[in-house]
Amino acid sequence: MEEQTIGYLGPKGTFTKMAVDALFDGGNFISYESIPACLDAVEEGEITTGVVPLENAIEGSVHLTIDYLVHYVNQSIIAEMTVPIKQHLLVHSQYNGEKIERIYSHSQAIAQCHQYLHKNFPGIKIEYTTSTAKAAEIAASSGPKVAAIGNHLAAERNQLKILEDNIHDYDNNHTRFAVVQKNPKTLKVKDHPHKQKTTVMITLPQDYVGALHQVLAAFAWRKMNLSKIESRPLKTGLGNYYFIIDVEQAYDQIMFPGVKAELEALGCQMKLLGTYPSYQISLHTPVKKA
Ligand SMILES: O=C(O)C(=O)C[C@]1(C(=O)O)C=C[C@@H](O)C=C1
Which atom of ligand 1 is nearest to the CA of 65? Predict the structure, then answer.
């Protein structure tokens, strides 16, 4: 088997890289500075595989990923992994009780710690970065009055201290990551899948009474369990949406074509975004507080 080349939302020290290290059994890993840059690299054949965040238990979908997969590239989700997320407040190694004036992090991480920030740093200046690891790099080069929100790996890589650990607002914080490819190839992974899933995108012809009900009924009477449904703007005008539906089973030749035909008879379109194994990763995250 040729060596797998895996692109991920970097730099090293992101949660995405932690997820990649936990799942893949070797390979050539390439860091990208943003989700679109990683997905573009897959599209252009620079790498075979991309790994990007898809959904968080506290903040919900990573819309940039979903919209990019739907509107800008033609790729399939070929695996997903769910990873525990522990956010820490990271400060400079020289920190000695100074008043923190600015906090950097990725928008998903800031949102996961919203209450914590509101209570402990009311009115603080928040700066958004392309990743939590990028925020850690900035904190390391900025001095003791600047903090970052990120993980223990980013702290270690940038010689930051963990001033406060587990600052996310709710326990059981997890993020789902999508593994995507343009031309599906086998992956070399360390783990066994927990279950199989399928993701489809559905568009309705126009807004009419009971349209969504009819779509859901096509799955329900076939006893196909859905684990997620989300509407996103089609970007063609207010009130126009598409739906992303996750089904808790692998694609099969009977049920899914049946659903598709039923939906098409109603004037809807169904597009397969991927049918894939779902991995649940448990990361060992040792925390050394300052
Ligand atoms: O910034 C990172 O470390 C990422 O890997 C991105 C990301 C995300 O976009 O959801 C991944 C996991 C966490 O939910 C926070 C940030």
Answer: 9
Element (H, E) at 117: helix 114-120
Pocket lining: 65 vs ligand 1, CB cutoff 6 Å? no
Residue 226's DSSP bridge partners are 247
Nearest to 14 by CA among 150, 142, 129: 150
Instruction: Find, among 195, 181, 198, 232, the residue nearest to 82 by Cα.
Output: 195
| ipTM passes above 0.95 | yes
Q: What is d(CA 195, CA 174) in angstroms, rounded to the nearest whole number?
A: 17
User: Whole-angstrom Cα distance, residue 22 to residue 173?
Assistant: 17
Nearest Cα residue to atom 6 of ligand 1: 131
What pLDDT digit, counting tens, does each position of 173-231 carry? 999 999 999 988 888 898 889 999 999 999 998 777 888 999 999 999 999 999 999 99
- Give the bridge partners for 7, in sequence order: 30, 50
What are the pLDDT digits (tens) for 30-46? 999 999 999 999 999 99
On whether the CB atoms of residues 275 and 140 are closer than 8 A, the answer is no
Taking the centre of ligand 1 as the mean of its atom positions, its distance from the CA of residue 124, in whole angstroms, is 21
Domains of the chain by range and CATH?
5-85+173-187 (3.40.190.10), 88-164 (3.40.190.10), 195-278 (3.30.70.260)
The answer, yes or no, to whether residue 67 has pLDDT greater than 80, is yes
pTM reported for the whole predicted model:
0.94
How far, in Å, are 36, 43, 51, 86, 109 from residue 21 at the CA level? 21, 23, 11, 16, 20
Query: How many CA within 13 A on the CB side of residue 270?
Result: 23
